[in-house]
Amino acid sequence: MRSVIPILTMVAAIVVIWYGAAIGMNAQWARDQAARAGTTLSTSELIADTWSQERPKLPAPHQIVAELWKTTAMMKPTSKRSLVFHGWITLSATMLGFVFGTGAGILLAIGIVHSRSMDMGVMPWAIASQTIPIIAIAPMIIVVLNSIGITGLVPKAIISAYLSFFPVVVGMVKGLRSPDAMQLDLLRTYNASKPQALWKLRFPASLPYLFASLKVGVAASLVGTIVGELPTGAIRGLGARMLTGSYYGQTIQIWSALFAAAILAAGLVGIIGLVQRLTLRRMGAV
Amino acid sequence: MGWVVFAFVFWVAAIALNSWLARHPLSETRLGKLLVPTIFGVTILVVWEALVRGLEVSSVILPPPSAIAAKFATSLPILWVDFVQTIVKGALSGYAIGCGAAFLTAVAIDRSKFLQRGLLPVGNFVAALPIVGTAPILVMWFGFDWQSKSAVVVAMVFFPMLVNTVEGLAASSAMQRDLMKTYSASYLQTLFKLRLPAAMPFVFNGLKISTTLALIGAIVAEFFGSPVKGMGFRISTEVGRMGLDMVWAEIAVAALAGSAFYGAVALIEKGVTFWHPSQRG
C-alpha cells in the first residue's frame, strides 16, 4: 500500500508530460491553420487548439478517454463502430486460442516429463522456438486458411494458440520437474503409479510455474490475435481498428483501440493473477 | 500413396531410433545431446516433404521444404537486402537504443526509493501490454523507413529491460553492501565494483528477452507501412501474391537471425557472468 503515492505521482507525471508533448507535436498544424486563415493565435488559444484537433499527431489524454467513452458506453455493443464489438471479436479469438494452446502445452509438457526421447528431441526445439519471431508467420496462416475456406475466428485463434503454446510448455516442464527426489521417492515407497504421482505430486507442485507462464501466454495470445487481424483486409477486431485508423489518419481511433487492447491485456493478466492467488491460498502455498 | 507410406515408416523408424538413443549411454555425451534433437528436426522435414508430395498439397498452401530451400538459394540478394533493412537497421539500432536507455534509466533512478516504487509497477504493467500496437502511431510519426521500426523496437524493449535492471541492482546482499561500507567505498565504487557485476545475470536476462521482442517489433511494424524492402514488407506482399515459398524463406531468415542474435547475447553472458551458479557445471 505504501507504493500507492509513488505510483500515482508517476502516473500524474506521465499525464503532464503527455499534455506537454501534445502541445509540442500539434502546434505546427495549429499555426499553419491559423496562418492560412490569416490570423495569429495567442498562447492560450494555441494550447486549446492543440488539445482539441480532429486529427492530431498526438491526441491529448482526454480526447482518447472521450473517444473510448463514446465508442463503448454511448453506442450499442452490436454497432460496427463500437469498440465493445471489436474488443469482443478480439477477446473471443484470444480466449479460444489461449485455451487450446495452454491445453496442448500442458499435454506436451506431461509427455516430455515422462519420455526421455521426447525430452531430448523436442525440448531443445521448444526452447529455440522462443528466440524466433514466430509472429512473422501470422499473415501466412491467415491467408492460407482463407484460401481453403476457413475464415473468421479460427485462423486468429490458431495464431494465438501457437503463441501461448511454447511459454506454457517450457514453464510446465520446469514445474512438473520441480518436486525434489525425496518427494518422488516417498511416492515410490507408497507404490504410487505414474498417473498418481503426476496427479498428486507433480501437478500441484507445478501450479506456481503454470500460472507464471499463463500470464506470459495470455499476453502473447492477445498480441497474436491483434497481429492476426491485420492482413485480413482489416474488417473486425482491435487490430483492424488500428489498421483502418492508420490508413485514414484517424489517430484518435488508433489510440483508443490501443487503450482498449491495453485494458483487455491488463484485465486478462489480472484475472489470471486473481485465480492464482485464490488457488495458491487454498493449497496453503502462500 | 507411396510417399505417405514412406512418411509414416520414416516417422516410426525415427521415433524408435530416438527412444533407443535416449536409453543408450551415448545420450549422456555431448554428441548424443546434439544427435537426438537433430534427428527429430530432420524427421519433421522429411515427413513434411513426403506428405506434401504424397497428398499433392498445392504449393500455395504449403510448399515442400525442398522448394523453400531452392527459393532461398536463388533469392539470396533479396533476402540479404531485407535482412539489412529489418534486422540490422530496424531491430539492432532500436535494440541498442532501447536497452541502453533502459539501463541508464535504471541506474539513474537507483538512488531514489520513491522513483523505484513508482516506476517499477508501472514498468511491470506496461511490459505486459501489447506495445506492438503502437506501431501504426510510430510509423505515422517517424515515416516509413527504418527509423519508425527502430522506434517501435525501443518502445518494446525499454520496459522489460528496465524492470530487469532495477531488479538486478537490488540483487547484492546487505552483507556485501556492508562490506563495501566498511571499506569506506563511495557510491560509484560500490556501483561499479559490487552492484553492477551482481546485476549482470538480471541484465542479461532482460537483454535475452529483448532479442525476440526486437525482431517481432521490427517485422510487425513493417506491416503498417515500409519502403519496398524489409522482411515484414516481403512477407505481407508475397502472401498477397501467393508466393509462399518466398514467405517461408523469409521465415527461415527470421528464425536464423533470431537464434543467432539470442545465441550471441547468451555467449557474451557466459563470458561476463562466468561466476554465476547457472553458468557452472
UniProtKB/TrEMBL annotation, chain A:
InterPro entries: MetI-like, MetI-like_sf. The lineage of its organism: Bacteria, Pseudomonadati, Pseudomonadota, Alphaproteobacteria, Rhodobacterales. GO terms for biological process: transmembrane transport. This is ABC transporter permease subunit. GO terms for cellular component: plasma membrane. The chain crosses the membrane at residues 6-27, 83-113, 125-145, 157-176, 252-275. Its main location: membrane. Residues 83-276 form the ABC transmembrane type-1 domain. It is found in: Cell membrane. Keywords: Cell membrane, Membrane, Transmembrane, Transmembrane helix, Transport. Signal peptide: none annotated. Belongs to the binding-protein-dependent transport system permease family. It comes from the Bacteria. Coiled coil: none annotated. It holds the Pfam family BPD_transp_1. It comes from Maritimibacter fusiformis. It is a multi-pass membrane protein.
UniProtKB/TrEMBL annotation, chain B:
It is found in: Cell membrane. Its main location: membrane. Gene3D superfamilies: MetI-like. Pfam families: BPD_transp_1. The keyword Transmembrane helix applies. Residues 101-272 form the ABC transmembrane type-1 domain. It is a multi-pass membrane protein. The keyword Transport applies. InterPro entries: MetI-like, MetI-like_sf. One of its GO terms (biological process) is transmembrane transport. GO terms for cellular component: plasma membrane. It comes from the Bacteria. This is ABC transporter permease. It comes from Maritimibacter fusiformis.
